[in-house]
TrEMBL record:
<keyword id="KW-0012">Acyltransferase</keyword>
<dbReference type="InterPro" id="IPR000182">
    <property type="entry name" value="GNAT_dom"/>
</dbReference>
<dbReference type="InterPro" id="IPR050680">
    <property type="entry name" value="YpeA/RimI_acetyltransf"/>
</dbReference>
<keyword id="KW-0808">Transferase</keyword>
<protein>
    <submittedName>
        <fullName>Ribosomal-protein-alanine N-acetyltransferase</fullName>
    </submittedName>
</protein>
<dbReference type="InterPro" id="IPR016181">
    <property type="entry name" value="Acyl_CoA_acyltransferase"/>
</dbReference>
<feature type="domain" description="N-acetyltransferase">
    <location>
        <begin position="12"/>
        <end position="163"/>
    </location>
</feature>
<dbReference type="Pfam" id="PF00583">
    <property type="entry name" value="Acetyltransf_1"/>
</dbReference>
<dbReference type="GO" id="GO:0016747">
    <property type="term" value="F:acyltransferase activity, transferring groups other than amino-acyl groups"/>
</dbReference>
Length: 163
């Protein structure tokens, strides 16, 4: 492999999301969601014992330590939920969403959760495909749940067994 190949292909590793990563997570969230979460909101969430997350750090960057995406989840009383997941558009479709979700599923299981829930806009094809491939299935819907430029859209509630 030549040096240019090495530079062209970013390599990421998944690490637990810490309170100190909240600014990075807020920037990743803001880039992908119309109602961004502030670093203060993320800090408050991460301060809760039941909340956990993971971040993908690029490990072969020439400068800095770019983040490719993060996931935030909660597990309590045998149930887990994905609070949000966001992958930098530059690194989409390179497996980061999959790896972040796998880390969240594993951690939820470790914390004793027997099932995991999430909500997704019915028009979000990328997320729906990802969740479908991960074994999530629709268990309900919330009409006119999300506000978007084109009006209000429906949220699908999805569930996956962790046992
Ligand atoms: C949804 C999201 C997290 C997916 O992350 P990603 O890193 O691009 O996904 P991956 O590369 O891990 O993809 C895993 C699988 O998901 C499916 N998938 C992901 N993006 C897809 C797309 N744009 N179209 C169709 N299928 C897609 C594919 O099955 C893919 O496997 P494949 O590439 O081998 O075919 C990312 O698009 C994102 O951050 N979107 C904006 C924020 C968002 O919508 N979050 C979810 C809110 S519920």
């Amino acid at each position: 492999m030549s040096l240019t190949d090495f530079i062209r292909k970013p390599v990421f590793e998944i690490f637990p999301l810490e309170a100190g990563d909240r600014m990075v997570a807020a920037a990743l969230h803001k880039a992908r969601f119309t109602r961004p979460w502030s670093d203060g909101e993320l800090h408050a969430l991460l301060a809760q014992d039941t909340v956990f997350g993971f971040v993908a750090w690029q490990v072969n960057a020439l400068a800095g330590r770019p983040a490719g995406g993060f996931v935030l989840a909660r597990a309590a009383a045998g149930e887990a939920e994905i609070l949000t997941i966001s992958v930098d558009a530059r690194f989409e479709r390179s497996g980061l969403g999959w790896r972040l979700m796998q880390a969240a599923l594993r951690e939820a299981r470790m914390r004793g959760a027997e099932e995991m829930f999430l909500e997704v806009d019915e028009g979000n094809i990328a997320a729906l495909r990802l969740y479908d491939r991960l074994g999530f299935a629709k268990v309900g819907e919330r009409k006119a749940y999300y506000e978007s430029a084109g009006g209000r859209s429906t949220a699908l509630v999805m569930r996956r067994d962790l046992r």
